[in-house]
Amino acid sequence: MGNPPLSVKIEPTHIGEHLAGREFVYLITNSNGRSHVVALRPQMTINIARFANTGRTPLVNVAVNNSVTLTWPPCDSTQGHEHAKYSLVADGVATVEGDELLVTITNAVFHRPA
User: Fold this and answer.
1) pTM of the predicted protein model
2) Looking at domain 9-109, what is its CATH homologous superfamily?
3) pLDDT score at 84
4) What is the DSSP letter of 81?
C-alpha cells in the first residue's frame, strides 16, 4: 500500500478552501542571506494574503527581496480531513502597502513529514 505522497499540489486560487483548522501562518522573508520568520494571522482573498502588524523586519526585507514563503502548520486536532496532518507551504511575491504586506501566492503544496 505504501505511504501517501510527500507533497500534494494545490492551486493558489484554492488556498482558502484548505485553511479550516489552521490557526496561523509563518511568514518567511529573506534579506542579505538571512531568513526572518514571524507567526501571523492573515486576511485571505482568493490567492492574496494580507498581513497587518508584521513588525518592521518583514517590511524591510520585502523591499530588498520580494520572494516570500508562507507555511501553515498541520491542522488542530478537531480537523479530520485528508490533509489535516500536512503542512501547507506556499511561495509568493510580496508588496508593501503602507504598513501592510500583501502576498500573492504563486505556488502551493501540502507537505507531510517524511
Assistant:
1) 0.91
2) Electron Transport, Fmn-binding Protein; Chain A (2.30.110.10)
3) 77
4) S
